[in-house]
Request: fold
Amino acid sequence: MAVAHHGLVHDRGAEVEQLLYELCVGLGFCLPSEEGRRLREAPPVDVDAFTDAVLVAEGYGDMSHTDTRRMVREVVERHMNTWF
Reply:
């Protein structure tokens, strides 16, 4: 999905792919292909929603106050801050 922002066109799917790659290589969160496709096609626009979607896709339950969630959220936030 290409998104126009301040006259520039961004490929959101490619940006999500980079984020998912870092989560997989850096933290071991390697999503099933179907889940990765869903996130690339319709990524949540909120850092917490994206973080939760990754954790759910990996089969984690309530992770609202854990170090694992914090680490995933930091990666998501770093990437998403460059999207908007």
About this structure: DSSP finds four helices and two strands in the chain. The CA atoms of residues 65 and 71 lie 11 Å apart.
